[in-house]
Structures are given as C-alpha cells and as structure tokens.
Amino acid sequence: MTTVRECVLLAFAFCRIGLYTCYRRIFYGPPPPPRPGFSAICIGITGAGKSKVLAVLCSEKDEIIPTQGFSIKDVPFENAILHVKEIGGSEMLRKYWKKYYRGVQGIIFVVDSSCDEDTLKIASEEFCKAIMDPDLAGLPLLVLLNSIDQSKARSIEEITNAFNINELCSERKWSIRNCYACDADSARSAFKPFIENMLEQYGHSNDNNRL
Ligand SMILES: Nc1nc2c(ncn2[C@@H]2O[C@H](COP(=O)(O)OP(=O)(O)O)[C@@H](O)[C@H]2O)c(=O)[nH]1
Ligand SMILES: [Mg+2]
Fold first, then answer.
1. How remote is the CA of residue 82 from the centroid of ligand 2, in Å?
2. Which of 26, 59, 88, 179: CA 20 to 30 A from 45?
3. How far is the CA of 2 from the centre of ligand 2 (A)?
C-alpha cells in the first residue's frame, strides 16, 4: 500500500516539474547560453570605491563596510562572468597584493578621481608596481576612474598622464573608463571594453558558467 502511495506522489512530483519546465519555456524562453568565466583582481587605494562598484554590479543593497583582507565576488555580465578578488588597499595590505596575483586573468585598478594630490601619487606608484609585476604581465587591464560625480573629479586624460598608462601598458590590452559607483548602468558600461578584451584574449569558452 505504502509503495503505491509513494509511486503516486512521485508521479505527481514529476508532473509538477514537467509543468513548471513548460511554463518557464513558454513565458521566459530557453535558458541563457553558458557564459565564459574569467578571474580578475580588483585593487586600488582604500576608499577608491572598489567594494561599492562590485556591490552595485552584484545588485547588493547592504551598506559598504571597509574590506578586511580580501573578498571574492562572482560578478555577472551579459556575455561573461567575472570572478573578482578585491584586495584591501590600506598601506599595510598593499604589501600583500602580489601574493594574490598568481592565476589571475585580468586587472581592475580603481582610482578615486577626486582624491587629493598625495593620494593620487600613492595610487600611481602602486599602479606602476602592480603593472610591472611579472605575474600580471600582458593581462588585460581596466582603470576605473570612480567618483566622477564629485566636483574635483579629474578627467580620463589627466589620470592617463599621471599614471603614464600609454607607456607602461603598451604590451597589453587596456582601457580607462569613468564610473559613478552608485549607478549600476554607469558601472556596467565601464566594464564593457574590459570584458571585450578578456573575450578577445582568452576566447569565449574559458570555463562554462551559468549563474
Ligand atoms: N560620491 C561617491 N561616493 C562613492 C563612489 N564610490 C564609492 N563611494 C563611497 O566611497 C566610500 C569608500 O568606498 P569603498 O567601496 O568602501 O572603497 P574601497 O576601499 O576601495 O573598497 C564609501 O563610502 C562609498 O559609498 C562614487 O562613485 N561616488
Ligand atoms: Mg573595499
């Protein structure tokens, strides 16, 4: 008797799964194609806006708290998924950035475009050190010029020159984009050229992800 009851329940369960699958197909279309996944490191001086940008891209609503050590996020884009490791940017932690470089496929360097001159100088020195590291040689780079909503925000040209990017990055695919981290569309479009560079460099079949 119990066996018949179990069989009926099982049949009901399969029917429900079948009906749900049909419903999804009809109303939401076929499942999205697999997207390639790439690992990237996100660095920059404390307060540049790294956590904020990543949280906005992941649609997280929680309040941003200073990053202790590092954090890892899977950031979904239309045509790829970035597995991003954000490393804290305090003076103490910057010494350890290089320990996280191995195995990374791309670099995201976030700069507060409205920071003071001293902070900008430190940012450009840290940028130079990171970019020259052998583990990061030839990797696609995105420089995110954040906080462009601030009145003291510098232009892309100013930061490109201050960081000497044209000379330092002649051997890699790179892009520099403005970003207002509080706006998801602004943050998302800033990543576009970077994702395209990643797809160009590693192809479309780099690990299969479906988030
Ligand atoms: N006005 C403004 N504030 C920002 C922007 N991006 C980040 N912030 C703020 O700057 C502070 C530091 O940001 P956080 O993401 O923690 O910086 P991190 O240390 O680089 O991770 C936070 O209070 C953010 O809300 C931006 O584009 N505009
Ligand atoms: Mg942070």
1. 17
2. 59
3. 57
Instruction: Tokens for 9, please give them.
Output: 């329940």
- CB neighbourhood size of 90 (10 A): 14
| Atom of ligand 1 at shortest range from CA of 46 | 19
Angle (CA) 163-168-172 rounded to 5° is 120
What count of other Cβ atoms lies within 10 Å of the Cβ of residue 1? 5
Bridge partners of 141, per DSSP, are 107, 174
Relative to the CA of 88, which ligand 1 atom is closest?
19
pLDDT at 211: 44
The ranges of the chain with pLDDT < 70 are 1-2, 32, 206-211
Ligand 1, atom 1: closest residue by C-alpha = 147
Q: How many CB atoms lie within 10 A of CB 201?
A: 16
Cα(80) to centroid of ligand 2, in Å?
Answer: 23
The residue whose C-alpha atom lies closest to atom 26 belonging to ligand 1 is 147
Cβ atoms of 80 and 195 within 8 Å: the answer is yes
- Count CB neighbours of 184 within 10 A: 15
Write down how long the chain is: 211
Beta carbons of 139 and 101 less than 8 angstroms apart: no
